[in-house]
Amino acid sequence: MKVSDTEWQWDRNKLTIYFTAEKRVDFRALVRDLASVFRTRIELRQIGVRDEAARLSGVGRCGREYCCSTWLTELSPVNLGLAKDQHLSLNPSQISGGCGRLLCCLKYEHEFYVTARKRFPKEGKSIRTSMGVEKVIAVDIFRERVFLKSEDQRSRIIPLVQLREEVERLGEILPTPESRAKPVPIPEATELAETPSTNGHGTGNGSGASRPDGAPRRRRRHRGGGGRTGGTPGTPGTPPRPET
Questions:
Q1: Phi–psi pair at 18, nearest 5 degrees
Q2: CA distance 173 to 73
Q3: What confidence category does residue 66 fall into, taking pLDDT thresholds of 50, 70 and 90?
Q4: CA-to-CA distance for 96 and 49, rounded, in angstroms?
Q5: Do 61 and 74 meet the contact criterion of CB atoms below 8 Å apart?
């Protein structure tokens, strides 16, 4: 374990020790030893390397103090895909901060790069232009240029506006931010009427027609001797026929 920082409570009744380690450390024996030396309550807290850099602070490759120790209150995860989208070098020594992890600032402009690339054709895609079928090698979102290579290995660099005019002249369509936007799913309309009943009394839940207020209509029982005794409706109770 590597001790990073210590912090006294204002009344000196507790001493918090921050440390980093590659794996979980059993420090129960160390706590007893430290308590006997400092005569106070000891708390050992293991933190990550990014939290350690935020506590100790430092100067980044930009010449300014670490963002995590000045104004960045929440350390959000940063993955290698952010560097790929921005076409940065994937060398860890060039895109890592003082903590040894990927730079937090890789996430600041990521949304801009994703939005700007929607106006350009995808790299590696073949499109028809005035020079024939050409393949998109790379795009320059800042200078609004596209690098193309034809089937006979001839390459050229043209502005995005010129490429769009050539493609539209041939009846093709280049992608736009609106065309690449994901469609928002429209919820299906809720059916107002329920499924038809099987007893022929109209709509409902199978027990008869519904009233105008939406409540199901109660089935009206026939008076008379029918029902349980097996008689017909409207006649006195008729005894059931003997079974043969």
A1: -100, 135
A2: 44
A3: very high
A4: 12
A5: no
pLDDT tens for 16-31 read: 999 999 888 888 899 9
Q: Is residue 150 part of a domain?
A: yes
> Residues 171-224: pLDDT tens digits?
766 665 555 555 545 444 444 344 444 444 444 444 444 455 555 555 555 554
Structural domains of the chain, count: 2
3-state secondary structure string across 14-78: EEEEEEECCCCCCCHHHHHHHHHHHCCEEEEEECCHHHHHHHHCCECCCCCECHHHHCCCCCCCC
Q: For residue 167, is it within any domain?
A: yes
| Confidence (pLDDT) at 221 | 57
Look at residue 227 and give its three-state secondary structure. helix
Tell me which H or E stretch contains 115.
Answer: helix 110-117
Which H or E run contains 159? Answer: strand 155-159
One-letter amino acid for residue 95 of the chain: I
- Structural domain range at position 34: 2-47
Is 78 inside any structural domain? no
Distance CA 226, CA 72 (A): 82
What is the C-alpha separation between 99 and 119, in angstroms, rounded? 36
